[in-house]
Amino acid sequence: MTKVTIVGAGGKMGCRLTDNLKDSNFDMTYLEVSPEGIERVKSRGVEVSQAKDVVPEADYVIFAVPDIAIKSVTSKIVPMMKPGAVGVSLDPAAPLAGHLFAREDISYFASHPSHPSVFNWEPNEKAHLDYFGGISAKQSIVCALVQGPEEVYQAAEELAKIMFAPVTVSHKITIEQMGILEPALSETFGAAVVTVLKEGVDRVVELGVPKEAAYDFFLGHINIELALLFNQLPGGQFSDAALKAINIGKGLIFRDNWKDVFESKSVKEQINAIT
What we know:
7-stranded mixed sheet
C-alpha cells in the first residue's frame, strides 16, 4: 500500500484531509504536536505517530501547516524522507518563496482546492451548505509539479482528488500560475473586493436602509450580475443604464493601475508577506 503521512493532521486543513483520507486505500499516518490538535486527531478514531517512525517510510508527506511555518517544519521533516518520496504542499506560497527544504532526490507537488462554485447545483442541504468543499459539495482543484519527474504528477494528482473529494475536474497548471490564482486573484484581489462589497452594504444600512432589505436587494443583484458576467445566462447582458453606472463606479472606486496586482513583481511581494 502507498504510505501517506499528514504533517499537522490536527489543524484546520489537516483535520479536513484526515477525514477524507483515514478510510482511503492509503496506509495513513498522522503527525501533530499541539495538545489540542492531538485531541482532534484522536477524536477521528486515529492515532498520532512520531515523525522518526513514519516519515522515512512514507511515499507522500503532506504539509498541512500554515505558510508561515512551512520553512521550519520542512527543515525538520524533509531530511527524514526517503529518496524518491513526494512532499505535498497545499498552497503555492511556500514553494514560490523558496521555503520548502531543498533536496534534489525527492519531488514536490502542490495542490489547492478551488472551493465549490457559487453556481454549483447540489442535491441536498448538507452539500449546499458545504461552502468550503471537501465534504459533500463538488469542486475543482488545481495541481502543479514543483520539482521531480513528470511521472510523479499523475499519482500525486489522484491523491489530491481524494484529499479534496468530491472533485469534478483537476486543472494542471504551473506553480507560478497557481501563485497568480492565490494569493493574487483569490485573496489580494478577490477577497479585498468582496470585503469592500460588505462595507458598501454596511454603509447603506448606516444611511437608514433596513438591513434585511439591503441584504436581500444586494445579494440578489450580485447573483444576477455574476451570472451575466460568467456566461451562466446565454444571451443575457447588462442594460444600457447599468453599463453607464458601471463606468461611473470604476472611475470612482478603482485606481487605473489596479491590474498590477497580478504582475510577477507584485505576486512575489504578496507571497513574501504571507510567508
